Amino acid sequence: MTKRPTTECQRGLHKWEQIVMKKHNDGSELRNRAEERLRERGIALDTLCSEGELQRVVQELSIHQIELEMQNENLQDSRDEILKEQQRYADLYDCAPVGYLTLAPNSTILEANLPAARLLSCERSQLKGSRFGSFIDQRDLPVFNSMVDKVFKSKTLEYREMMIGNIGCRLDAIISDNQQECRLTLTDITAQIKLRNYEKSILASHQETIYALVSMVEVRDSYTAGHQKRVAELSVAIAEELQLSASEIEGLRLSSILHDIGKFNIPSEILTKLTPLEEAEKEMLRHHPKAGYDVLKGIHFPWPIAQTVLQHHERLDGSGYPNRLNGDGICQEAKIIGVADTVEAMTGSRPYRPAIGIDRALQHIRLESGRLFDPDIVEICVMLFQEKKFCFSERPASETMISSKGGRYKILPSL
User: Fold this and answer.
1) Both 99 and 238 in a single domain?
2) pLDDT of 229-260, one tens digit each?
3) 255 and 373: one domain?
4) Are residue 383 and residue 289 in the same domain, yes or no?
5) Which end of the chain, N or C, is less surrounded by CB atoms within 10 Å?
6) Residue 130 belongs to a domain with what CATH number?
7) What's the pTM value of the predicted model, to 2 decimals?
């Protein structure tokens, strides 16, 4: 019994010696490997052991340690700057005036900023993994799907306007750099849509006013029924060849429809007289551009309709009326209507004469090109009839077209 503790102590001591020995061997092995690497680099161990070399190594180590500390400081500064830039980017991303989304090819939302979440009335955390199509009005869904498919196939920027809930949105989509995601921008254009609808309402109101005014004249003069409409048809065709803007063409169309509105105060017996007009009656008719201007000048249009109506009987050489304007003093819209009005009037019959015909009408404006009418407008007008086969809309029976090639009727200026 007295020998057992001694035996146990011996065993423990022996085990400890083994552990110490293993560590010593491991340390020796590591040292041997380190010495071997030094020899591979051509460094002699006996040189390292000299006092001078040791001092140099210590000095180099001290300098190297300072360099490492400086590098660490630079890395820390760079890391701080990167963190600041990341925060700045995050602030820009989440405080942008538009919504940003990243979509997978199947339209699953991968990432969204806060404005996008607000537009979609959803928490940002709930957006990730959702299908964007679930937020779009079902009537617009095929359009959206087609847009995304086109973006991934053609790699081009695409945009559409559609409703998301009660919000009108413009969606701009483009492929990401990795070609695997779609970047989608959401812009709230509800206000713009309301403004466009308001403008359409105003335009519709203008048109209703215009047609009401036109009907007032046409009721009193059956021979001018449809005249304004046909003048507008030719005027618009000429304007399109001149490549005027859509807005300019619309203003010209409405001016053409109203160009004879001033005839409302001309006695109906003069408008429907079966014999040629007396000079005093012609003079009364020559006041209709000014009368039309006086009616229209108080109505706000986004086009110079009143001035166009006032000038549609002015001529390049100053022989027109009511103000004897000439050349560049006449607006382009009035020059166009002047040609269209003359051609239409000559190709329809009047109470005091039958229709003169398109051949004589085109011959007339050609002869007066440069004197009465703008040469460019005349050239386009002739081309429309002869090359593009332009035709006026159908006339009423009272204005049946008859050819007067070689006829005896004197050509008079349109009134």
Assistant:
1) no
2) 899 999 999 999 999 999 999 999 999 999 99
3) yes
4) yes
5) N
6) 3.30.450.20
7) 0.60
